[in-house]
């Protein structure tokens, strides 16, 4: 539901999605306080404006930004891939791992570096990973990024 605003436009989709979600959840009879939590999370999930304002927002940020993988690429013509397609296509697996004992939350990626350099990943995703760190901090967790077995953040 968090990306529902993309039906309007990708630009500012977090905010338009929050407004759309309000209407849907209100019509469903959800408690106002729960609606407020959910729509503020939706309105704060895009890295251009995001802030982990509550626990749901922090969890949504971590879940959304770890959702990078080959199957997200709709374009089937590798020759016309843009940098986002190349990064997503190069990710063979992505896991979000919570280790309760150490309070670590880890995005563990396996990237095909024949397709793509790890630096390209950072060019696209550094802002998102820093946002993940803020979200983890909100949840009193320690964020780690592991790519091909190497801890990078
Ligand atoms: Fe989004």
TrEMBL record:
Top-level lineage group: Bacteria
UniProt protein name: Metal-dependent HD superfamily phosphatase/phosphodiesterase
Species: Sedimentibacter acidaminivorans
